[in-house]
Specification:
The protein has 16 helices and five strands. With 429 residues, the chain is mainly alpha-helical. It has four domains: 61 residues, no CATH class; 115 residues; 146 residues, Intergrase catalytic core (hpI Integrase, Chain A); 46 residues. The chain has a three-stranded antiparallel β-sheet, with no helix packed on it. β4 and β5 form a beta hairpin. α6 packs across α8, α11 packs across α14 and α14 packs across α15. The C terminus is likely disordered.
Length: 429
């Protein structure tokens, strides 16, 4: 009987985790130094179809699939700089961060992608992948030259990045790496500490500290009303601005689109795309629409004025709701309750991480493909966007309770009686 294979990445990932990897790990003849099966093993053991689906539907190699989508760590991060001392210190930076700062493997991998992109540009700048980076950073006689060199290198990365937010992430990770070298007295001074001052950064929330994973989970666990869940989703997961969130109207929401989208008028957005994909929160939208649609004076806004449901909630009240929730959850930034800007900074942060992974995938593909495959050298925009969304959503799946991602779950367990949600039409638009 012919097996029915899923064509979406989520389904393929489940097969990889539940079937392919366990069978490969149980095979006594596999190479114990590898973290995922070779192409030959995939074909010989009846899984060759996955190769074709990945290639035709998603433009992915097996290596990209297992490392980026399945989440298997690459065998000993292969740095794009070959100086032994630089490689040793880079691996130490990652391992020490895992040991002393409780980094997860996914954070370690993302950091590797960010830092390796800078290393790659350093090698390109000098036309030498064996440049002695540690020695260069520690040369006090040439500090001005070193500083100017890294300004030029970061300018190249900034020009190639999808956004200034992403470029800034590359710079900050490199700066943190150099800061760790200085703290450990491996270098005597830090010639790259102020490089960001050389550039103009078009970043939405420059200086806003993003909430960490524990703080996001604390907010979710503390929320008590549908509105509070919506402000968490809106500010942190959707990444909409303080004034935009309460003004979102039912007329802007396309529930028939996959994923669901919110359309903003050009005049409503300071910058950025006029369309926001709703990767998470569709059920919350439907619940709020069902609840508010019972009021004859409802004007269509997801967050409404308590005394006049024909009007949206005042942006100041929405921001205050978020900050009150942060205070109850003990989510503090600089000893003060976090703000919507700190929530939106999460959106920027996670998207920058996803882009770093995508850029690394393009680089891997560039190395893997032969000359006769050069027309397929880069992922299509549609493929990249799907992978970006998947990587972004996976970050939240590591933070939020598992049951909130179940289509069969009524999410607001603790407040059903408050809004009489059990009497609502869950399938209604």
């Amino acid at each position: 009987m012919t097996r029915g294979w899923p064509h979406d990445l989520k389904g393929l990932r489940e097969i990889a985790r539940n079937e392919i990897l366990p069978e490969w790990e149980a095979d006594d003849e596999t190479d114990p130094t590898r973290n995922w099966p070779k192409d030959e093993w995939i074909v010989e053991n009846g899984f060759s179809t996955i190769k074709g689906i990945l290639r035709r539907k998603h433009d992915l190699t097996l290596r990209e699939f297992f490392t980026m989508i399945v989440g298997i760590e690459n065998e000993d991060h292969k740095w794009d700089i070959n100086d032994p001392e630089t490689v040793r210190r880079a691996n130490e930076f990652l391992d020490r961060s895992v040991k002393y700062r409780d980094w997860t493997e996914s954070t370690k991998t993302t950091t590797y992608h960010l830092l390796n992109r800078v290393f790659r540009e350093i090698g390109r700048h000098f036309d030498d992948s064996e440049v002695a980076l540690i020695e260069m950073l520690d040369n006090e006689q040439n500090m001005t030259t070193t500083y100017d060199t890294f300004v030029d290198i970061m300018a190249e990365i900034k020009n190639e990045a999808e956004s200034d937010e992403s470029a800034y992430r590359y710079l900050r990770m490199f700066q943190r790496y150099v800061e760790s070298l200085e703290r450990r007295y491996i270098i005597s001074s830090n010639p790259v500490s102020d490089i960001d001052e050389e550039f103009t950064w078009d970043r939405d929330q420059t200086g806003s500290t993003p909430l960490n994973d524990e703080q996001i989970r604390a907010l979710w666990d503390t929320a008590e009303s549908l509105e509070e869940y919506l402000v968490i989703i809106g500010y942190v997961i959707w990444g909409v601005r303080r004034k935009e969130l309460p003004n979102i109207n039912r007329s802007q929401i396309n529930l028939s689109q996959d994923p669901v989208q919110i359309e903003f008028a050009e005049s409503d957005r300071k910058n950025g795309s006029g369309t926001v994909d709703i990767l998470f929160g569709e059920q919350y939208i439907k619940e709020q629409i069902n609840r508010l649609s019972t009021h004859s004076d409802w004007g269509g806004h997801l967050l409404v004025d308590e005394d006049n449901k024909s009007q949206p909630m005042d942006p100041r009240d929405t921001a205050n709701m978020f900050q009150d929730l942060c205070e109850r959850a003990d989510v503090l930034i600089d000893e003060e309750p976090a703000t919507p800007n700190n929530g939106r900074a999460v959106w920027h942060d996670y998207n920058a991480e996803a882009e770093a992974c995508l850029r690394e995938m393009d680089y891997i593909k560039d190395q893997d493909l032969t000359d006769d495959e050069s027309p397929r050298r880069y992922h299509s925009q549609n493929t990249e966007e799907k992978i970006r969304q998947m990587l972004y959503l996976e970050r939240f799946k590591k933070i939020l309770p598992e049951d909130v991602f179940s289509e069969d779950t009524v999410f607001l367990r603790d407040i059903e009686n408050q809004y009489q949600l059990d009497e609502m039409d869950w399938d209604g638009d």
